[in-house]
Design the sequence.
């Protein structure tokens, strides 16, 4: 039986999503926003930033495959939602799966 050739990436990785906020006409110039999501990447840092990634409006860690970002003052415009993790991942499968670090095991459930 031939074993699959798996190559792990051992450096930090990140996903970026571009978000455009467009309030309705009666919204004030600055307005609050809450973003919730699900991702099977526990312990990954999620941030809402400006396009240059210089201003971080909120950040959190994915727990139980869920995250929530909230900010009270944000303007109409383009923003990034980025996911960063330093755990190795299996880069050759169609699904991104977090792999254990050396000496680390994951509970099966």
Sequence:
């Amino acid at each position: 039986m031939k074993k699959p050739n798996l190559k792990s990436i051992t450096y930090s990785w990140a996903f970026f999503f571009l978000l455009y906020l467009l309030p309705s006409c009666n919204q004030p110039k600055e307005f609050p926003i809450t973003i919730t999501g699900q991702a099977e990447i526990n312990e990954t840092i999620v941030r809402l930033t400006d396009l240059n990634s210089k201003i971080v409006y909120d950040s959190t860690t994915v727990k139980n495959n869920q995250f929530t970002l909230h900010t009270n003052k944000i303007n109409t415009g383009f923003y990034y939602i980025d996911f960063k993790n330093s755990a190795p991942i299996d880069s050759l499968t169609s699904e991104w799966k977090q792999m254990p670090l050396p000496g680390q095991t994951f509970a099966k459930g």
Q: What stands out?
A: Confidence is low (pLDDT under 50) at residues 4-12.
